[in-house]
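User: Fold this; tokens only.

Assistant: Input:
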Amino acid sequence: MLININPHNPQERLINRVVSILQRGGIVVYPTDTVYGLAAPIDNVESIDRIYVAKGRNTTKAIAVLLGDPDQLDKVAINLTASARKMAEHFLPGPLTLIVPRHPGLPDVLSSSLSISVRIPDHPVALNLLKTAGPLAVTSANISGEDSTMTAKQVLKQLK
């Protein structure tokens, strides 16, 4: 389901609807500060698997985790260094990705390694959603190997 949210006036009712879809195991598409993202709850293996299928993505490629604020880092990472925390507080939100030690409670389907990529997008809709829903497994909303999607129309064309 595509729900179009005005980025200049995110509506709480629509964010809550998107969160409800995620809680029921759905996957959603939403804008970020770089491209449109395809997201699932970080603790729902079936939903994360659906992302791989929808994109035609190789399951050996890790999926990043997006956060709503640096306080959520402890939900997805362990043994963070002081420099990693300082970078997060200074540079995030923004187009910076941190590679951090993966929390052992995260499913292996997110990353087969002991690390995970985390980011906090600088976009009002994305931040509102991530602060409400919590950390999400997110990758670009496009077919693997195809151009990244910058509009909802491009997402619909690629992912149908």
